[in-house]
Amino acid sequence: MILKNNLATLNETIKIKNKRAPLYVIQEDKSGSLNIEEIQKYFKHTKINHSRWQKAVKSCFDIFFSSIALILSIPIFILTAIAIKLESNDSIFFKQKRVGKKGKLFTFYKFRSMTENAESLKESLKHLNEMDGPCFKIKNDPRITKVGKFIRKTSIDELPQLWNVLKRDMSLVGPRPLPADEVLNMEIWHLNRLKVLPGITCLWQVNGRSNVSFYYWMKLDAEYIKKWSFLLDLKLLLLTIPTVLFRIGAF
User: In sequence order, what DSSP letters do the residues of 212-227 get, joined into one string?
Assistant: First the structure.
């Protein structure tokens, strides 16, 4: 079942969980599918049970540590930029619109690890997709450059997202942000992951990443939101270190 089917299920789920009717019911458009604007309207009336001090602590932690990490990463940024430019004349950074908290669209940054025309080639490669669900991943993606293969394996390509954290589009820890076309083709209950800021690392990141099914990935995101605490964020950040060093699930 994809998002456009049985929209009432999402509203009924929220109603049961919160023991009250939702203030806004998501509507289909004329084509029978959803759009980002409808998701944004829905989440204007949806709250998550995190106190103000919890949110403040998380924000301060994100800003403080992402600032330090950005400063310490300057040499890596310079070397990576030089390597990308030496291999090709393509842009250094990959920028894409992703869906964030409450359906907000934001510009997502990564070091470019694929050819400049990677997005236009995606449709022709869909038959090679190795990921279930609406996501698109290929282990030996032909669009990945030589430099790109290294920075993806070492997760260096993710470093520019520290800027997203400083801009408060993202957090250090939270569900990974996905492109709009993938979000609009999820199952209805997956929308709950949009209740919080997306993150650089998360439960999925330290539990196999691309080696796990999409369904399990979504369950991990739901578990994170349900059990979130500052200590859980610290634990996930620490667990991310061996995940990156041993390149678990990275491709």
Answer: S-HHHHHHHHHHHHHH
